[in-house]
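User
Please review the sequence:
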Amino acid sequence: MLSLYFEPAESPLGWEVPTVVDATGLTGPLLEYVVALGSTAHDRRSHALTVLWDLLLPVPVAAIPSILPDDAQTRAVALAIRANPADGRSLARWGRDVGSSARTLSRRFRSETGVSFESWRTFERLNAALPLLADGLPVSRVAREVGYLTSSAFIAAFRRELGTTPAAYFNGTSATSTD
């Protein structure tokens, strides 16, 4: 991944918010070239940017909510899951570990994040899975690394939250297979 920031006024594209783009083909090397030029070679940079603006294509990005709770005990659980999404402790076990009841943690997760504990954990697991999948790791390995016992359970959660399978998401298709 390469991140570049342009002043909105510098770009003729009219994008005023950060935008993820497809960096395949010529776009990736051209972005690296622009970075290497820096601000010293004004004419060459200007020419490269003219070509770059023609090549940039935004890509859809899944937004998976990931709000951290404010309550100290609930936040401790959330941070521990974020650090290790494969941790499968139940809410009752988490409660014992942080000195709270499962019911209190459940209520706080819902009130402070807007979703249940299980939904929040699913979001965290999917957030952890996306970079692994983008790196080309097999779905079965990613599923295990983020806490799913089977690939099919992971694919089902992925499809439920993102509307497609992992393979289709990264291939830009709407396939319904379960790799």
The chain has nine helices and no strands. The chain has a mean pLDDT of 86. Residues 8-55 form one domain.
